[in-house]
Amino acid sequence: MALHLSPLHPLFAAEVRGIDLRQTPDAAGCAEIHRAMDRYAVLVFRDQRLDDDQQMGFGAALGPLEQTRGVVDAHKHRLKHHNMADISNIDVDGNLLAADDRRRMFNLGNQLWHSDSSFKATPALYSMLHARLIPPEGGETEFADMRAAWDALPQRLKDEVKDLVTEHSLLFSRGKLGFADYTDQERQDFAPVQQRLVRWHPGSGRHSIYLSSHIGTILGWPTPEAMALIRWLEEFATQRPFVYTHHWRQHDLVIWDNRSTMHRARPYADKTFARDMRRVTLTDVAPTLAQRMAA
Ligand code: OGA
Ligand code: MN
């Protein structure tokens, strides 16, 4: 199989042509996709009319899938597969979520720059988001290249941050929007985990800044000092030259590498229009602190 790759941005992100993902790629095809991911970190496949089983099948062919979802009201899951993430504004009956629904409040957190599942001990590897239904306007997804951000960081800052350890939790990211409405069980499930602030990517041999809205502190630092630095790094890393904006078409499948990119949702009129996006997520091999820092 020869994938045709067309870059979408000077630094990263490419569109892939010449593949129909309704047929699960064989081992050689998957290896080619992994190689393209190592280089581009974000891949866009247009016009892929996948159903849930086909999307899950493609994900499972690329690597082990995450088994848990980090959401509130987990028992109100709309989709057939328990580990397919529902990135929509639709409830189990097909209605738009009410304006004051806590799932809607919680989901607004996707508009903050983040890396998926950085709040889990072993975070996400790839996310594969498929557009089933899109609103007429808004609802773009932005991606930032955290390898390019690392490369551009002044040496003094590289030295300062390279060995730092952060704590991540959904309680921190949602708290930034003032959301604090949890059950005791959710509070326990969302207890903070530790991650490296700078990581190394074995497929590309590159370093990246591992930022996420889920960060709530740096180990051993006073929290305000930690969060001031994290905020500075986030602003640095999401400068326009590092960002690719994806304008969705129905049936797009976009895959991103959470080890080397951040992303965020852009707003849309979610009280008026449905947006039905479904995500299959691959799991990383180990907590970041247990991973090698360089070859
Ligand atoms: C996600 C996510 C952004 C969007 O699926 O993990 O953050 O635009 N999505 O829906
Ligand atoms: Mn996300």
Structure description:
The chain is an alpha+beta fold and 295 residues long. The protein has a single domain, classed as 4-Layer Sandwich (Double-stranded beta-helix). The protein has eight helices and 15 strands. Strands 1-2-3-13-5-15-4 form a seven-stranded mixed sheet, with helices on one face. Strands 12-6-14 form a three-stranded antiparallel sheet. Strands 8-7-11 form a three-stranded antiparallel sheet. The structure holds N-oxalylglycine and manganese (II) ion.
Topology at a glance:
Blueprint: E1 4-7, E2 14-17, H1 27-40, E3 42-45, H2 52-62, E4 85-86, H3 102-107, E5 124-133, E6 141-145, H4 146-152, H5 155-161, E7 165-168, H6 170-175, H7 184-189, E8 193-196, E9 198-201, E10 206-209, E11 215-218, H8 223-237, E12 243-246, E13 253-257, E14 261-265, E15 276-283
Parallel strand pairs: 2-3
Antiparallel strand pairs: 1-2, 3-13, 4-15, 5-13, 5-15, 6-12, 6-14, 7-8, 7-11, 9-10
The structure holds N-oxalylglycine and manganese (II) ion (MN).
